[in-house]
Structure formats: C-alpha cells, structure tokens
C-alpha cells in the first residue's frame, strides 16, 4: 500500500484542540437577541394578547365607558359658585379614571395572572433581555391608554357636549398629563402586582384601590366638595393630579375659583406625576419578582 492509498485521518490543529477543549470545559453562551428586536416582538405579543382577550378588553376599556354613559346621563346642573356644568366636570374626571383603568388596574391584574401561570418565570429563563418584558408592557399600556382616552373623549364630546381643548397650550397639557399619568400608573401597577398572591385574588385586591381612589380624587364629585381629609389623602396619589390636569384642559379658567389652590397648578401636577414615576420605578426595581408565589 502506497502512501497515497492510506486512509485519510483528520488532522486536528492546536487551535482546534484548544477550542474543542474550551467548548467541552464550559458551556457556550447563548446568543441574546437584540433589545430592539426582542422589544418589538414582545410588544406585538402583548397587544395581540390584549385585544384577543375579550374579558380583559371589556373590563379595561369598556368599564370606564359604561360609567361615562351612566353617570353622564344622571348628572345635571351647575357646580356651586361657577357657571360650569357639573356633567363636564365629571367627564374630565372619568377620562382621567380611564388612564388609571388601563395603566394601573388592567396591568396589575395581567402581571399577576402571568406570574401565577408561570409565564413570567419562563420568560426570565429565555435569552430575551428582561428589559424587553417591561418595554412590551409599557407599549401595551400606552396604546390602550391612548385608545381609551380617545374613545372617552369622543363619547363625551358627541353625546354630552364636552368642549375640545381650545388652544395649543391645552392640547400640550393634555399630552404631557396623559404621558406622565400613564407612566406613573403603569410603574405603580408593576410594583403593586408583587402583593397579589395569585390570579384568583387579583381583581379583588386591585379593584377596591381603583374604586376608592376615584371617589376621593374628584372623579365622581367636584373635588372642593369632598371633606378636607379626603382631599389631603387624595393628594398623595396620582389620580387626583391627573384629574386636575384634565380639568385644566376641558374646563374654563373661571373654574379655578373652586380649585383648592385657586389655580390649575400645572407645574405642581407635572412635578408630582414625575416624582410618582420615579418612585414607581424604584418600587418596581425593589419588588418585582420573576418567580411565582410559593405553593405551600
């Protein structure tokens, strides 16, 4: 047998041997998808899941609409000391309540369900950047909140005569009040979800907070007609400031005579909502759990 007839034997180079040894000695790292691509994919999943879930769609979007239609048909007359229709004051408040419905109540219940079913834990074990999960939630909240606000405004304007913002400044106020209020409520929802033990109790733990906050924040009644201790308590929560911002958008400036400070306090509204957003971010970082509750 000549040299050319000898069976070929693969030759492993020193570099190949080192690479093989290294691969055998430690596990090759998983390739992590880019944050942009992962966030877009996660946002798509969040939006599809929301609009395909009829129960979530009805509770989150339609509940404020039903309240608007029912109470808007009941209220009548002028607010004492002003020429402003009580119905318009309620409309501004219920639009603010719609922000809390989508950004706080809906999101907190959704996260509790995903944690209870193990979805959150499974996502944490994938190569997906963890930040993509929160970006997906934020995109879902922004889209649904804008949709909710537009829907409530359309009904309030066409059915109950609520005037649209009359100046560029008022439209600008509507934009930043909506943005800051949405972010603040969403971050608080993520943090609040940590105290929900399971999906069965989610609505029972979230809904009372949502309802009580509405009553003390000037949604159903003019804020100046509430007891002073309620006004003080409401000032510690975002909804009071979101509602006050919307009143400055939809109501005449003459209505400030019955506002507690005698003015709209736009600077304070922006500051309080920005601080709540920052506080919600800190609380989320401290309390969010990727694993579900322990089963005894």
TrEMBL record:
Mode of membrane association: Multi-pass membrane protein
Biased composition (Low complexity): 12-23
Transmembrane segments: 57-77, 89-113, 134-162, 174-195, 202-223, 269-288
Subcellular location: Cell membrane; Membrane
Sequence ranges assigned to domain ABC transmembrane type-2 in this UniProt record: 55-291
Superkingdom as given in the UniProt entry: Bacteria
InterPro entries: ABC2_TM, ABC2_TM_bact-type, ABC_2_transport, Nod_factor_ABC_transporter
Keywords: Antibiotic resistance, Cell membrane, Membrane, Transmembrane, Transmembrane helix, Transport
PROSITE patterns in alphabetical order: ABC_TM2
A matching Pfam family: ABC2_membrane
Annotated region (Disordered), positions in chain: 1-30
PANTHER family, per the entry: NODULATION PROTEIN J
Family of the protein in this entry: Belongs to the ABC-2 integral membrane protein family.
Designated name of the protein: Transport permease protein
Source organism per UniProt: Streptomyces spororaveus
Lineage of source species: Bacteria, Bacillati, Actinomycetota, Actinomycetes, Kitasatosporales
């Amino acid at each position: 047998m000549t040299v050319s007839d000898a069976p070929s034997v693969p030759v492993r180079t020193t570099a190949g041997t080192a690479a093989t040894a290294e691969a055998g000695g430690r596990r090759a790292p998983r390739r992590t998808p880019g944050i942009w691509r992962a966030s877009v994919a996660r946002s798509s999943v969040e939006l599809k899941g929301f609009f395909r879930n009829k129960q979530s769609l009805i509770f989150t979007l339609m509940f404020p609409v039903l309240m608007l239609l029912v109470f808007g048909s009941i209220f009548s007359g002028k607010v004492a000391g002003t020429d402003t229709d009580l119905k318009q004051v309620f409309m501004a408040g219920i639009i603010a309540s719609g922000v809390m419905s989508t950004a706080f109540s809906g999101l907190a219940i959704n996260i509790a369900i995903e944690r209870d079913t193990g979805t959150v834990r499974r996502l944490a074990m994938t190569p997906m950047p963890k930040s993509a999960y929160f970006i997906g939630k934020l995109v879902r909240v922004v889209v649904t909140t804008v949709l909710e606000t537009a829907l409530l405004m359309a009904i309030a304007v066409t059915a109950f005569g609520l005037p649209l913002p009359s100046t560029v400044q008022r439209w600008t106020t509507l934009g930043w009040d909506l943005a800051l209020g949405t972010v603040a409520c969403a971050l608080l929802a993520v943090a609040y979800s940590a105290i929900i033990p399971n999906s069965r109790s989610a609505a029972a733990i979230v809904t009372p907070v949502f309802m009580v906050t509405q009553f003390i924040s000037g949604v159903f009644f003019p804020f100046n007609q509430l007891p002073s201790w309620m006004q003080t308590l409401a000032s510690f929560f975002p909804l009071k400031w979101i509602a006050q911002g919307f009143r400055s958008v939809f109501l005449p400036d003459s209505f400030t005579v019955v506002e507690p400070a005698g003015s709209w306090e736009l600077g304070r509204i922006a500051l309080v909502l920005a601080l709540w957003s920052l506080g919600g971010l800190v609380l989320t970082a401290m309390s969010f759990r990727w694993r579900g509750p322990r089963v005894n």
